[in-house]
Amino acid sequence: MPAPLIDYDGEKYYLNYDVPKSIGRVKIFNGVAPVILKAYAWIRSMGAEGLYEAAKVAVLNNNYLYKKLLEISGIDAPYSKDKQRIEQVRYTLEKLTKETGVTSGDIQRRMLDFGLHYWTSHHPYYVPEPATLEPTETPSKEDLDEYIATLAHIVKEAYENPEIVKTAPHNSVIHLVDESGLDDPKEGAITWRSYLKKTVAE
């Protein structure tokens, strides 16, 4: 059995780490059962033909988005620019930032005002001012066109009136979140326990 075990001493329950023949703690790398179950159910419900069709549509959607976004000033794709992509592209808005001072994070927050999702990248960034847009098989062409038009509108705002973008979101419950510590390993904490160790130790 994995450790710790939950034991009862007659008065209260406690975590028992004294289990010499245990396999140890079960970590996240063994998988998260609900996610695996949902993925399995989706695969079974789609079947081989459905998965093939979903993959084709995801690649088609991504390449459509890729071609259209490269037409917008300030957006670029740093790797193998003239080649087709598979299911996602890591874009860079470095040129836009240099010309307007508007960052990819500012664009992300402005997209919230239009009710659309925009993801920059994991931290630390390895592409300057990244945007990781992954349309998958779900959006229709109309959805993609709306997304492209919204992003083009925000880029136009960045060139004409950057303060609107820099101070976004304007229509959201949560306004600006301090992201300064995301790239600092001394501040970041992956788990609640590691966060407590760092904050209590200070």
Write the layout of secondary structure elements.
Layout: E1 5-8, E2 13-16, H1 33-69, E3 89-92, H2 94-100, H3 104-112, E4 130-133, H4 141-160, H5 162-166, H6 192-201
Antiparallel strand pairs: 1-2, 3-4
Mean pLDDT across all amino acids = 86
The CATH homologous superfamily name equals Aspartate Aminotransferase, domain 1
- Estimated helix fraction: 40-55%
Number of strands: 4
- Side by side, the strands of the main sheet go 1-2
- Euclidean distance between termini CA atoms: 36 Å
Percent in strands? 5-15%
- For the record, what CATH class applies? Alpha Beta
Shape designation: extended
Structure description:
The chain is mostly helical and 202 residues long. The protein has helices spanning 33-69, 94-100, 104-112, 141-160, 162-166, 192-201, and strands at residues 5-8, 13-16, 89-92, 130-133. The strands form 2 sheets. It has a two-stranded antiparallel ribbon with strand order 1-2. The mean pLDDT is 86. Keywords: Pyridoxal phosphate.
Short structural summary:
The chain has helices spanning 33-69, 94-100, 104-112, 141-160, 162-166, 192-201, and strands at 5-8, 13-16, 89-92, 130-133.
Which features characterize this protein?
202 residues, mainly alpha, two-stranded antiparallel sheet, 44% helix, extended
